[in-house]
Design a protein that fits this description.
Length: 125
């Protein structure tokens, strides 16, 4: 299954979609399918700083708990609050309604080293 090519991907299965200086972050459908039924998503509060290479939250499923990682430094500007009541949105629509956080970034250069859609598809195919 081809992933959207309008974003960048980490090997740990997070995706990053850039709109100006705002970056939306979520996990891929591949990761959501591997986790199976997601039961809880722990996300940072608006205003919290996230750091490249550091965990900013976690996803719990009936199968496992996985850390969520950022590839960028930034400040959380929005959190998908729908996931508190409906974490299954990540399984149902990982690339759209299942987004996790939005951050405001000054430096987007670290994204240049991440995989694009076709590279991520090859890595997970």
């Amino acid at each position: 299954m081809a992933v959207p090519n309008d974003r960048k991907y980490l090997k740990s299965h997070e995706w990053f979609k850039v709109e100006g200086r705002t970056v939306t972050i979520g996990i891929t459908k591949f990761a959501a399918d591997e986790l199976t039924d997601i039961t809880y998503v722990q996300l940072p509060a608006v205003g919290k700083r996230v750091s490249a290479g550091q965990s900013f939250g976690e996803v719990e499923s009936v199968k496992a708990t996985s850390e969520l990682y950022s590839a960028l430094d930034g400040t959380v500007t929005a959190v998908n609050t729908a996931l508190s009541d409906a974490p299954e949105l990540v399984n149902q629509d990982a690339f759209d309604r299942g987004w996790m956080i939005r951050i405001e970034c000054d430096n987007l250069a670290p994204l240049d080293g991440l995989m694009d859609g076709p590279a991520y598809d090859r890595a997970t195919g």
